[in-house]
Amino acid sequence: MKPIGTIRLESPRLQFRRFQKGDEMMMFINYCNNQEVTRYLTWSPHEDLQVTHEFLDAILEKYNDPYFFAWAIIDKKSQQLIGSIDFVKINKNLNEGEIGYVLSEAYWNQGFMSEALNTITNFSFNKADFKRIIIRADARNLASMRVQEKCGYHIDGIEEDVLQPGQKDLIDIVSRSLSKEEYLTRIKR
User: Fold this and answer.
1) Closest to 175 in 3D by CA, of 158, 152, 153
2) Residue 55's pLDDT is what?
3) What is the architecture, at CATH level 2, of domain 9-134?
4) Contact (CB, 8 A) for 120 and 178
5) Is 11 exposed, middle or buried (CB count within 10 Å of its CB: 0-12, 13-18, 19+)?
6) d(CA 82, CA 165)
7) How far apart are CA 117 and CA 84, in angstroms?
8) Beta partners for residue 133, in sequence order
9) Which of 45, 75, 90, 126 is the one with CA 20 to 30 A from 168?
């Protein structure tokens, strides 16, 4: 895995950039404060802008690490910050990472998250030289399951009765992955 950190990327409808000071308002309004958006995540909706400000500060502090990858997702048309996609865990010894993502409800069911995941998957294998990417998600999050399937990620297993941070109930977690070899074979077809 190459220590190149979070670099600017683009797709047909989206831009991917580092978070920056001043992003907290769009983050709060577009997704951090939305109960529906955060329903299946490991964190609860932010109660106020101060929580989002602290959340953003924690992200900004990590950008000096060349193995930290966290992108703000920007809609090219509106220039709105509409979500994020990042590596929530990285194993340098195995050259693999676990991706997490979140998207504003106003952008659901329009292919934006699939476009984002495909872009970051391509970056991860072709630029950062990851060997494998993992995605773990709440089994009830059917929309996220469809995104992962559409992008070529296959089920590795299901963890039953897991207590996630920020959750009250036990849930099932679906673990999916995609290897660099599988990805390269898939895009050649």
Assistant:
1) 158
2) 95
3) 3-Layer(aba) Sandwich (3.40)
4) no
5) middle
6) 23
7) 10
8) 97, 178
9) 90
Instruction: For residue 50, give Cα distances in angstroms to 46, 47, 105.
Output: 8, 8, 22
Answer yes or no: are the C-beta atoms of 115 and 16 closer than 8 Å.
Answer: no
pTM as predicted: 0.94
- To 10 degrees, the CA torsion angle through 33, 80, 13, 64? -80
51: enclosing H helix or E strand: helix 49-61
How far apart CA 139 and CA 61 sit, in angstroms, is 32
CB atoms within 10 A of CB 140: 12
- pLDDT in the model for residue 168: 74
Mean pLDDT of the chain: 94
| Residue range 44-85, pLDDT digits in tens | 889 999 999 999 999 999 999 999 999 999 999 999 999 999
Domain ranges within the chain, ordered by starting residue: 9-134
Which residues neighbour 122 within 8 Å (Cβ) at sequence distance 6 or greater? none
* Separation CA 75–CA 82 (nearest Å): 7
High-pLDDT (> 90) share of the chain, % = 86
